[in-house]
Write a structure and sequence with these properties.
Helices cover 22% and strands 47% of the residues. It is built from two helices and eight strands. The termini are close together.
Length: 115
């Protein structure tokens, strides 16, 4: 039987530097593992080819060379309560991160027998 699950929640996106570390892990990896350990939705990491942050420093990828610390976005699709839990965990860890919290409707398409 074909079904569709639709959830009103948030897209929670953290912006970090590619080589930033916390507790010996890349911050992007730490965020994914933190969310997974607490069973909070699903997440992905996306590397930018250029960007600048609140300090105005431009990082970009050139054809033959790679910038040393490109921006990375770590993105989660979560229920409101899950997003708040994840933000509280990051706050408690004392990690300084820029984030965006955007209302989102997300879903799962397909045959429930294959999920």
């Amino acid at each position: 039987m074909s079904t569709e699950i639709s959830i009103d929640g948030v897209q929670l996106r953290f912006y970090v530097h590619m080589h930033a570390r916390h507790d010996g892990l890349l911050v992007s990896q730490w965020l994914l593992e933190l969310a997974k350990r607490h069973k909070l939705g699903g997440g992905s990491v996306f590397r930018a080819i250029a960007g600048f942050g609140r300090h105005g420093v431009l990082h970009q990828e050139a054809f033959f060379e790679l910038a040393d610390d490109l921006p990375v976005a770590v993105e989660f699709l979560l229920r409101e309560s899950e997003a708040e839990t994840l933000l509280q965990l990051v706050r408690a860890a004392g990690v300084e991160l820029v984030y965006a919290r955007i209302p989102a409707r997300f879903g799962v398409l397909g045959n429930e027998e294959t999920r």
